[in-house]
From TrEMBL, chains A, B, C, D:
Residues 29-48 bind DNA. This is HTH tetR-type domain-containing protein. Keywords: DNA-binding, Repressor. It comes from Oceanobacillus neutriphilus. It comes from the Bacteria.
Length: 195, 195, 195, 195
DNA sequence: TATGAATGAGGTTTCATTCAT
DNA sequence: GATGAATGAAACCTCATTCAT
């Protein structure tokens, strides 16, 4: 019964994340979080005024994580981003399950919903900038770089969602062919914008 | 006190759908469904053995709806599909909210999860066939028509998710530019497959 | 979906008995009985005004069965009765489970309780008479034949209850030794009553 | 609104026992227990994870009570045990009603069933030892002391069950005559074992 | 005669939240 | 700071019973 006293907000959030994915939205109870963290429910209430505050904490944390990754990936190139996306594209993806679960919860919580949109827009922006690095300009006339970022991000999330549902989703094949498409677009971009 | 109102399973499912989107996963209670439908909770249990069965009923219903639309869209062309996707791409989209909610629920229910994957694969397939009609062959060498279907569907869902979260998501702009991209790909496909 | 119309009260009681033992008091619902009998709940209400009436029907039926066996066993001798008791002395004994279940229910239903007592007294009486046949008079002075009947019946039920609870209850051994005891008492009875 | 009344598991079990006998299996609801104990239903669930656990708690409690009595009775003699059994042999016996109710419940719960069998076997054992004290050896050849314990216990339970059902069961008479029988057996035992 | 849709009261259970310690 | 006993509202679910057909 060793009591590792002094649990931090941050730690609680990590445990809560774990719980959320392990138990799903339905069974995501404060009791479960407390058990996972090895503390009592009272302790959670010492750190978060309500359950909603805890959920918000999770989202904020994800937000920060995302920002860090994005700023990192700014220094790398697109390949890195794709590799990362591919690795998260699976039936058991913690990351995307969490995202879907929070998205589902966000429909009834405007604050969370807004934060999620901020995260996504930052991702879109970062992707757009990365694409610019390898394309220098949009390979298709009339399609802005912003839109390429949006579409790229949408594609990655959309594929992830399919993989999340379909056990034998052909991740390898699809990502390989997706890179093919990007390659072709890149080669056009380098020649001239296509009308 | 039995009043044979004559409510059908189908009607209950419709009311349940309405409830699910109006109240969100968290507040999607059988009492709420019962109230919405104007029956007692017992009545729901007469038609569905558990809440989960009701949820499954909703999914199955969506499945059938999807199938019908897909078989319809086979006779139409891709433009139709895009228009439909665009119309569903909004901050308040009942359709996509329901989908996300069910997806979230599916993580803890393999049966639902499997059914969802079936729906998606059917959509992918239908899209692939429609693309073939206007492309006759894949515009990018090494990218199978199946993959085009998958990617197209992923894109549509990904965009919808963004629109769901971001109030001022530029639906018009993005879809217009997406069509631009498709147009370009089509023109390539008509010349020759690109290496 | 062949509907064997015209189910009788008697048949319903048999199905109800089966249900009671298969599902236990707790899950002994009219729905379960109806399902077992292949009819609807309404049908049960056609034959029995309430659930209690059905339970009473079961008890009455058992009563009649008992009477029949008792009057039969009057013609046979004690050995028969013992063999029958032994065969019913097991971990899975339908007969005794039913008896315990009904006894439990009887605590809140005086009518049932009274009927059960009538059954038992009849059994006691029959046993007493059978003992008289082989003993001609009580082998122990001061112990009436009525009491022997009561004690014998109590012993049989008590052993059955133990067997009902204990998986490896040594039925064979105990009954063999019980017969030994009876044998000894009999031999005394034949010599002279013991003081 | 948390009022630390400080109700203990033990107390809850006592209240539950009271409820069980007062209301019978059918009406043995957690609401009733909560009301009797003066707490809310939630409180019960704080102490017992399910209703079944509470029932198990009752059984375990009875188990311990039995053990205590048994170990006590080891120091006393058989007369004590008989007197105790007789006092519990009545139409309203809390003790035996509880036992029957739990036995009925045990048919659907192997854990409870097993515990009951353990209690009974301990009783059998204790009785056998006590009989040995006054008999020194089995008064009937071929009948082991273990079996005497089993039979004695069965007799006591069987008589109790009859008394439970029959309002005017002749407790006094039967127990007096039962002691007579034991006396006779004892006197044999002292002479020599009977063949 | 029998059915099956519907009811409503009440059961067990869960859970965010409170508060004395 | 942290705990854990307690709450109470509300969730899911069951079931005897009713009644139009």
């Amino acid at each position: 019964m060793a009591k590792p006293n002094g649990i931090s907000k941050q730690e609680l959030i990590q445990y809560a994340k774990q719980c959320l994915v392990e138990k799903g939205t339905e069974k995501f109870t404060l009791r479960a979080v407390a058990d996972t963290a090895g503390v009592t429910q009272g302790t959670i209430y010492y750190h978060f005024r309500t359950k909603e505050q805890l959920l918000l904490g999770i989202v904020e944390d994800n937000c920060e994580t995302s920002w860090q990754e994005i700023s990192k990936s700014n220094t790398y190139v697109l390949k890195q981003a794709i590799a990362s996306a591919k690795s998260r594209c699976s039936y058991d993806s913690f990351f995307h399950q969490l995202f879907i679960l929070i998205t589902a919860a966000s429909f009834k919580n405007d604050k969370i919903r807004y934060q999620l949109s901020e995260i996504i827009q930052a991702e879109n922006q970062a992707l757009s900038e990365n694409l610019l690095k390898i394309w220098s300009e949009s390979p298709v006339k009339g399609v802005s770089m912003d839109t390429w970022g949006i579409m790229f991000n949408a594609m990655v999330d959309g594929l992830a969602m399919q993989a999340l549902l379909q056990k034998d989703f052909p991740v390898e094949k699809v990502y390989q062919e997706l890179e093919q498409v990007i390659g072709v677009l890149t080669s056009f971009g380098k020649k001239e914008a296509i009308e």
